[in-house]
Amino acid sequence: MDKILFNLLSNAVKFSPVNGEILMEVNVENGEAIFKVSDKGIGIPESDIEKIFERFYTTDHADHQFSGAGVGLSFTKSLIDLHKGKKHVSSKLGEGSCFEVTIPIVKEAYQESELQEHVDQPLPNTVIEDITTHNDGHKEGDKEMHSDVILIVEDYDDLREYLAHNLSNYKVLTSANGKEALKLANENMPDLILSDIMMPEMDGLELCKHIKTNIITSHIPVILLTARTTAEQKLEGFVHHADAYIEKPFSIDLLTIQIANLLQLKKNISAKYNSEIKVTAKGDDGMLPLDKKFLAKSREIIENSMSDTELSVESLSSELGMSRSQLFRKFKALTNTTPSQFIKVIRLKKAAELLARKEYNVNEVAFMVGFVDSSHFISSFKKFYGKTPKQFAEGDTSK
After folding, report:
1. N or C: which end of the chain has fewer CB within 10 A?
2. DSSP 161-208
3. Chain-centre distance of CA 189, in angstroms?
4. C-alpha–C-alpha distance, residues 392 and 243, integer Å
5. Helices 157-166 and 252-277 meet at what angle, rounded to 10?
6. 358's torsion region: left (phi>0), alpha (psi -120 to 50) or beta?
């Protein structure tokens, strides 16, 4: 309820002249809390009163110096609805406005699942820490800290700060629009993106489309937050390969569980790949087609340059059109390995194939798969397969 009051007062200040008068009243009657915020500002045309709670709606009659993004009252309405409240607005042009909100405050007004024990908590005006300031594994209050990076994309400042506050056990990046978020995603490669849909410059659907069709960022899970509720609108989100779709008003507990589940699913897929690559080098089940294409292309580049001792992470990233850091994060997210480890595994798998043919000696095989030093090849092979290349060639070829 503090956010409802804060938003109503902010709205009154925004549409009042300098040194204007604003009055707030709070009463409790018949199990309900009644809030009234009135001002002597510019007022609202009668024809616009029913529209002011619509997202992005701004009155054409308002003086340009008082214009806004049209999201504050929309968010306030969602909070009122969440608390089973009612709202009433009265206003006259040039005389001011009065917003009245009634919220039930007795347990009987809510279902058992909607109630929770009250815990004093400061307003979420948290200053977001820099991405490099968190340490893995420690706890902040009752929250277990995580190393995962979450990019929050929301144009409404209060909601963006509220989300960042409640997700402060992750490393958090924030953006006010899709265009800026796309740049941040390419530069920082977050582990998950949480985005509103309706935003200026670039909306959440367009952002999701760019993320999922760019081979650099296609692996990043995207959760869309929206007030849209029809099946067609939800389908539109999933067509753009969104990983989850959560309606406003939402439960912060449900959202945090959804985030944790998606991050864990991504880790499970990369762990599965990490174990399967040692057997087949093709463990890509559960990945998007674009990510499968990325791994297939990476294998192709390595296999085509197998004997090239100069093949490196830098040359692989250049062939794939990525920076070295982007390549590292992409491989870590998809396979839980580094690019250099991936290159070595592909080389060792090829070495095993050549040794199994019994057509080449150990030194020849080492050279054919790109090892300059045969002793380094022997130690790497033994570490990976549990036996020397000679033992492998002479005996059991299974690991």
Report:
1. C
2. HHHHHHTTTSEEEEESSHHHHHHHHHHH--SEEEEESS-SSS-HHHHH
3. 10
4. 44
5. 60
6. left
Given a contact cutoff of 8 angstroms between Cβ atoms, the answer to whether 99 and 49 are in contact is no
Instruction: Enter the tokens of residue 36.
Output: 């009234």
Provide the angle, in degrees to the nearest 10, between the axes of the packed helices 178-188 and 204-213.
30
Q: In 3-state terms, what secondary structure has residue 162?
A: helix
CA-based radius of gyration for the chain: 28
CATH 3.40.50.1100 fits 139-250, yes or no: no
- CA pair distance 264, 178, nearest whole angstrom: 25
Q: Which residue has the tokens 């019994």?
A: 358
Identify the DSSP state of 152: E
Q: Helix 374-385 vs helix 339-357: angle between axes, to the nearest 10 degrees?
A: 90
What is the C-alpha separation between 154 and 197, in angstroms, rounded? 8
DSSP code, position 53? T
pLDDT tens digits for 9-49? 888 888 888 888 899 999 999 899 999 999 998 888 888 88
Residues 66-85: pLDDT tens digits?
A: 444 345 677 788 788 888 89
Give the H or E element holding residue 32: strand 32-39
Q: Is residue 395 helix, strand or coil?
A: coil
At residue 322, what are phi and psi to the nearest 5 degrees? -125, 160
Q: Are 219 and 329 in contact (CB under 8 A)?
A: no
Q: What is the CATH number of domain 2-105?
A: 3.30.565.10
CB-based contact 366:388 (threshold 8 Å): no
**Spatial contact of 93 and 135, defined as CB atoms under 8 Å apart:** no
The residue ranges of every structural domain in the chain are: 2-105, 139-250, 273-394
Token pair for 314: 């830098």
CATH entry, 273-394, from 3.30.750.24, 3.30.479.10, 1.10.10.60, 3.90.550.10: 1.10.10.60
